[in-house]
Amino acid sequence: MTWAIGNGESRTQIDINNLNGIKVGCNAIQRDYLVDCLVCVDRRMVTEAIENNFPNKILTRKDWIDRFKSTDVLAVPDLPYKGTERVDEPFQWGSGPYAVLQASLQSKKINLIGFDLYSETKKINNVYKDTDNYDESDKDAIDPRYWIHQIGKVFECFPKKKYKIYNTSNWKLPKAWKYPNVSVDNITSL
Question: Which domain holds residue 90?
Answer without folding.
Answer: 2-35+44-108+127-189
